[in-house]
Structure formats: C-alpha cells, structure tokens
Amino acid sequence: MQPVVFIARLIGPLLVVLGIGVLLNQQVYTDMIGRP
Amino acid sequence: MPSIASTSPEPSARSRADKRDASEEVPAQRVMNRVLDPAVFIARLIGPVFVVVGVSILLNEEIYTAIAIESVHSPTLIYLSGLLSLPIGIAILNVQRAWTADWRVIVTVLGWLFTIGGVIRILLPHLTTALGGRMFAGSVALQVVAVIVLIVGGLLCFEGYRR
User: Fold this and answer.
1) Which of the residues A8, A25, B61, B83 has the least number of beta carbons within 10 Å of its own beta carbon?
2) Chain A: residue whose CA lies nearest to B82
C-alpha cells in the first residue's frame, strides 16, 4: 500500500467522524471552546 | 571471448544458492521477517502498554477511580480520548482486519474496539458520560477492567515476543 493511500485511509474516516461529531454536538463543542 | 550469457550461473546452481541462502538466514533476519507481520508488530507495541496499564490500575486503584470519574464528566477529555482512539483503531484495521482462528483475531478485535469507541466518544459524548458513569459506579468494575487488560496484554506480549 502506498504511503499516501495509507494516510488517506487513516485521516479520511477520522475527518468525516469529526465533522459529523461537530454538527451533531454543536452545543457541547461551543461549551468546550468557551464561546458564550 | 565468452558471451555474457555464458558467465551467468546455471539455473540449477542458482536454485542451490537460493536454498543455501534461505537455510543460512541469520536469527536477526528471521526476527525481522516475523516483525514485518503487522499483527506481530502491533502485538509487540500494544502488549507491553496493556501490561503496564493493567498493573498500574491494580497498584493505584484510587487514582484511576478518580481519573475515570473525572474523565466521564469532562466533554473535552471524552473528545480528546476519542480523537486518540479513532486513528489508532483505523490504523490497526488498515493493516490487520482478518478474522483468523488464532491469536491474531485479538488484534482485529482491538482495532474494531478502538474504532467503535472513538466514533461513539466523538459522535455521542452524552452516551459516553452516561455509560461511563454507570460502569465505574461499582467498586469492582475497575478491577475487572484491569484483569482483562492484563490478560490481553500478557497474551499479546507472549505471541509478539516469543522465539
């Protein structure tokens, strides 16, 4: 497996989950960064 | 003047040389070839970590209870632990995802557990708080976790470092 493919397979799903996580839990993340 | 083709060894002589090379493989090369198996490499990496964590929980139970209670009530810690767990799980599954009928299946199961745990912590932090709070409410839960981690770590160490 080429390194770039390995990195894409590693980071791709991570970014998707992070993006959905932020959209689903906006209040939690807003509290986390301390925005009023 | 002899041609280039005539200077190359006979096929039978070449195969004899290959066989001799294979039989004369030094122990260090044999170890390296074995470590190149992703499951063995991951076992050698995770096994000692699990053993140390398991022993540490048993030795410092009060500290780990405080850590567990504090962790499940902090969204930042839940998020960071998910952020740590998910790439580890995905990396394991990228190199070892086979459901074999030997010890390697432990590595696959750990890969899935890290991945699913990471996804739940990032997507459903409230569920993590509820489950974690309920799980660590009992006094024996941490001891059970420590023993399981110790057994799995010991098994991975044995399979990873034997020979």
Assistant:
1) A8
2) A18
